[in-house]
Write a structure and sequence with these properties.
Helix content is about 10%, strand content about 45%. It is built from 2 helices and 10 strands. A hairpin with a 5-residue loop joins strand 6 and strand 7. It starts with a strand and ends with a strand.
Amino acid sequence: MISKKLKPFDLEAAKAGAPVITRDGCEVRIICFDSNIECAGGKYPIVALITDHDGGVSPQSFSVNGSCVHGHINEEDLFMTTIKREGYINIYPNNPYCFSMLYPSRENADQSSSPSRVACVMVEWEE
């Protein structure tokens, strides 16, 4: 699940396929990282399609740091989104600081538990 929490734009993570959105939360699909677009003395090698909140799609170019307009804060500047993750941990008595593995589902945790388990806890985090 992708949340709308923003992290600074990371060119290498974006190249690796990590999710990217605009400052105002619009979806971004990067088309290329090597265009020759120049404007007002700045280079804008990233070309992306921006899906606005009404569903319209428009192309836009960006600098390597994700800026839409050189030197100005813009609603279309690029940011990385976080991915919300969850997992399950089995808890056993007499060992409060040592948990078992993190399991991807409650079913996996149940199958791997022993009769001495006192709880199965879901944990969530954002990456």
